[in-house]
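W.,

You were right to be curious about this one. When I first looked at the sequence I had no strong expectations either way, so I just let the prediction run and decided to look at it fresh. Below is the sequence, 222 residues in total, followed by the output.
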Amino acid sequence: MEAMFFAVINRGRANAVLRKAEEFGARGGTIFLGEGTVPSRLLEQIGLAESHKEILMISASEELCSKLHDMVCEEFMFSKRNRGIAFTIPFRRRQLQDSGMKQASPPAGAASSHFCIITIVDKGSSKDCLKAARDAGARGGTLIHGRGAGVPTEFYYPLVIEPQKDIIIIIAPRDKVAPIRDRISTELELEKPGKGILFILPVIETSGLFENESGEHGGVAS
């Protein structure tokens, strides 16, 4: 397995995407419940700024991941607004090192046009994190509530997600990564022990992003 395919879609649709992916050769997947964010002041005022989402994660080869991107665009209309967002990140440690993403910000020579910013903070701090990210240019994000889940040591970082944590996932274009990272780190004081952790992963393919249009699709918010 060479990569990890993620699809963020409205609640109740992930199983249909997974079944279709299995027809293309996927060997199962994992579904997480999450909350998408819609950057609209009007919706925030009336309490409808968050939407229920499902995050589907499938481990596959890069070739299969590319086919899955085509599939979600054709079968589930990810090429249209508000239908969903998909992205692929490299899975092997060797690929991560080759991409140049050992540092917290993308180097000038990195090939990826987009990066996945993952922030893990205490439960309740997600809104501050997302506000900081938006102030720096992010258009949205997806929130997952962590409860005692561990990450294998052979993965990117040997971290453990303690109970009552919020995990915020943001997909951002290259030029927005450093400003978003710096703003989140400053606003949430991540340099202090116990305040949280932020790391960045390269994205090798995306579907459903609309950075040049108004709306929430600059981040994982579809």
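Here's what jumped out at me. The beta strands are 3-10, 30-37, 50-60, 85-90, 114-122, 142-146, 165-173, 197-203, 205-207. And, maybe more interesting for your project: The chain has six helices and nine strands.

Coffee later to discuss?

I.
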